[in-house]
Design a protein that fits this description.
Flagellar biosynthesis regulator FlaF, cilium, mainly alpha, cell projection
Length: about 140
């Protein structure tokens, strides 16, 4: 096992679901911000078009996993929160389709991700009472990153 593999294994074993989701959203949001910068030139530049499409599709995949996770039996999040996540996931799917057609607002996708990240911040997870944890379905999508 290489040093990098050992490090990844240690990170995966010690990170909470909230930490993992936060890091994942940070990574995909960074790519969405690059997509905003590339969006205007994407029609004439296949490389930039590919980056925009990849970022949008990756963000949608992340949200698809969040939505799917909300429906699993092991998800301990409150019902209202799961419903809100599902609603946001549906909106992300629609906004992504519009953005891929050049009509959507990538800035709004970034704003939603940042708002969710605020709720997932690792330092907020260290309150006196344990926070409900979603199931571990998100970890599999992080492996693709």
């Amino acid at each position: 096992m290489s040093g990098i593999d050992a490090y990844k294994k240690t990170i995966n074993q010690t990170a909470t679901s909230r930490d993992t989701e936060y890091r994942l959203l940070a990574q995909v949001t960074s790519e969405l911000i690059k997509a905003i910068d590339n969006q205007n030139d994407a029609k004439n530049d296949p490389k930039k078009m590919s980056q925009v499409a990849s970022a949008l599709n990756w963000n949608k995949q992340v949200w698809d996993v969040f939505v799917e996770d909300c429906g699993t039996a092991g998800n301990q999040l409150p019902r209202e929160l799961r419903a809100a996540i599902v609603s946001l996931g549906i909106w992300v799917t629609k906004e992504t389709a519009l953005a891929l057609e050049g009509e959507g607002d990538i800035d709004s996708l970034v704003a939603v991700n940042r708002d969710i990240m605020k709720g997932l911040k690792p330092e907020q997870a260290t309150s006196a009472s344990p926070q409900p944890q979603p199931s571990s379905a998100v970890g599999s999508i992080l492996d693709k990153a």
